[in-house]
Amino acid sequence: MSMNPFCEIALEEALRVKESGAASEVVIVSMGNEKCTEVLRTGLAMGADRGIHVATERPLYPLAVAKLLQALVRKEEPGLLLLGKQAIDDDCNQTGQMVAGFLNWPQGTFASKVKVDKSENCVHVEREIDGGLESLRLQLPAVITTDLRLNQPRYATLPNIMKAKKKPIAKVTPEELQVEITEDFDILEVVEPDKRKAGVMLSSVDELLDKLKNEAHVL
Amino acid sequence: MHLRRLASVARAGAVPLPNRLRTFSWGALQKIGFCCKTSVDERERMDYDIVIVGAGPAGLSAAIKLKQLSGKHDKPLSVCVIEKGAEVGAHIISGNVFETRALDELLPDWKEQGAPVKVPVSTDKFWWLTSQRAISLPSPFQNDGNFVISLSELVRWLAKKAEDLGVEIYPGFAGSEILFDDQGGKVIGVATNDMGISKDGSRKSNYQRGVELRGKLTLFGEGCRGSLSQKLIKKYCLRELADAQHQTYGLGVKEVWEVEKSKHQPGLVLHTVGWPLDSKTYGGSFLYHMDNCKVAVGLVVALDYKDPYLNIYEEFQRFKTHPSIRSLLEGGTVLQYGARTVNEGGFQSIPKPVFPGGALIGCSAGFLNAPKIKGTHTAMKSGILAAESAFATLMNAQDSEPNMENFWSALKDSWIWDELYVARNYRPAFKYGLLPGLAISAFEKYISCGRFPWTLKHGEPDHKATEVADKHQQKAYPKPDGNISFDLLTNLHRSNTNHDHDQPVHLQLKEERIPLTVNAPRFAGPESRYCPARVYEYITDNNGNLKLQINAQNCLHCKACDIKDPLQNIEWTVPEGGGGPGYSVM
């Protein structure tokens, strides 16, 4: 199992924030079944200090994840919450925004540049939006979701992978966090897209018009 | 490297920061790894009792056996396995009809432990194909008691067993350099490659120096034509020491299909010879029904073929259009595609697998039984024997320097040796042609039982066998229909192969000009045809000049180019760990 690429970028940014002196500890969280511990070990090998595994076999959608993060934030009191902008399996792009809403924290999503300003207790975020780049200044604590261009994640080195084995991973359940996971929607059906039909070679414009009119019914 | 947590310091006039965002002084941060001040040429080093290169059947069997012996005799041993694939099993591809002989020895209760060895062979068929017909012949194989498996799945299961015993396995790390002692005579470990180097050789922002893994003994289980193993064979003259001939190889291309349930017969094993290959080209196909409606199908062609226009991938696609094969695959989907070279040299090509500081195990030495087309059981057994020898020498207080000489004698006393001896004459017989080959094989099998005191020699090395293009003609292969047959790049996608494109090209030409002065004019650029990943392409540049383009990203790590290049000008070196194919059911 591998780490969601955007989350890897978020972790790399967190490590850089700590290395710049603006933070003392990087805590990583993963939610789901036992396979999450593999992802957490990779994160610890990259340099995070400790991990939290929210253990559940239930399927987790963004709303549930946001509620669980809210509960964890209340416990841990971080100054900055960094997430990948979206997961590459469901492409939802909702969790960061939702948790910011729950916590009533400012949010800077699709960050392509992050700079923490300790003296002002704020963070400067550049966001990639349709029209170009938007610069924001957010009061801390804040939520930032990361985009591709933010950084190039570091490799986990062998010695760090070994050291990571000794770093702690705390296990906690949704019940212990007092979060009820409800299934907000049912997946009715998953189908493969229709196979592309082979193209048809036509011999004249008249034939094309005829087909467009009588077969495709677009004219 | 522990970071002391300092309480936040309120500087005069500044607003005190909240507890949530505690600060540090820069002093405490000096030692963070990423911007650290260690010498740029120094590598970090990790020491183990045994270092094993390659988490394949041989490497993992050795690791498991070492830990079993360590536990049994209550002598702790540290064992480390590195694996260039992104995860264990990602670079494992094989037919595979599995003989459980070595697994029975290693883990006798493998069945109770849930090993993915579940589909017993139910039928064993052998066909001679013409373009339209399939003629049933008595099967030369004895597959009773064997199982149809995915070797990739079995290896992943073995890795779990190894980790449970305390073996440290590190996927995503490639052994790229052999470490020698100061005198240069003894192997003391391997180093992984530097990561984060860009195509032009400069360092990227995530540059990471490689790491040295030092072992009292190092075992190399890199599979067929292992890149480090080749260097060791050359350095220590391991073939000469055993009076062995050169190794000979075949290239296998394989797809795993999901077929319609009504067509699926778990345990059905089929091999074919004949069409589409001609009588001068040694090879054949395999088709194995696995579990869950999966069918493994592939073509293996010996690399001593003469015709430079032969395209093994296209021959495989053509093979599938045979009426008897097509009918099975129609309506199904391809799950994965891949390719790998295999050893065919057998007994005559076994090098001395022991050198100062370690040994070669599995296909890196070459224990595949060619007529049986099975190498997994012998690879595993070689891993077990190597482990026994390594353990004995490490525990022996008398041995001032651990040495594995008795691995060589243990091999010769084992069933691997006997099995390969009896099978030694089948493959070399085919250098006389298909019919003489079959005749001699039949004699060996039914009359002499491999015991007559004659040992046929291999023909010339594979790379020398390619004839000049003038002697042959371009071959016309049928266009892929997208249903049964596919174009190579579509199929390549199904191998999940990828490499970070911004890294030095790992396929190195000893002389830059040879492709244009020799390969293209004399041999019509055979690498553009035998490579099952379209790595090598001859294109014309903007000035109309011919150019060899190397699409290293596509590489499947099959090693065909390292073997078959006519002047041995191409050297396969290992790219950054974690790249390459991503096999899971192969």
Commentary on this structure:
- Chain A: Heterodimer of an alpha and a beta subunit.
- Chain A: InterPro entries: ET-Flavoprotein_bsu_CS, ETF_a/b_N, ETF_b, ETF_beta_N, Rossmann-like_a/b/a_fold.
- The complex is a heterodimer of chains A (219) and B (586).
- Chain A has 219 residues and is α/β, with parallel strands linked by helices.
- Chain A contains 6 helices and 8 strands.
- In chain A, the strands form 2 sheets. A 5-stranded mixed beta sheet of chain A has the order 3-7-4-5-6, with helices on both faces.
- In chain A, strand 5 (122-129) and strand 6 form a beta hairpin.
- In chain A, helix 2 (36-46) crosses helix 5 (158-164).
- The mean pLDDT of chain A is 92.
- Chain B is 26% helix and 23% strand.
- In chain B, strands 1, 2, 8, 9, 10, 13, 19 and 20 form an 8-stranded mixed beta sheet that branches. A 7-stranded mixed beta sheet of chain B has the order 6-5-15-16-17-14-18. In chain B, strands 3-7-4 form a 3-stranded antiparallel beta sheet, with no helix packed on it.
- In chain B, helix 2 packs parallel to helix 4 (151-164).
- The model of chain B is unreliable at 1-39 (pLDDT under 50).
- Chain B is globular, with a radius of gyration of 25 Å.
- Chain B starts with 25 loop residues before the first helix and ends in a 14-residue tail after the last strand.
- Chain B contains 18 helices and 24 strands.
- Chain B is α+β, with helices and mostly antiparallel strands and 586 residues long.
- The interface between A and B is medium-sized, with 29 and 34 residues.
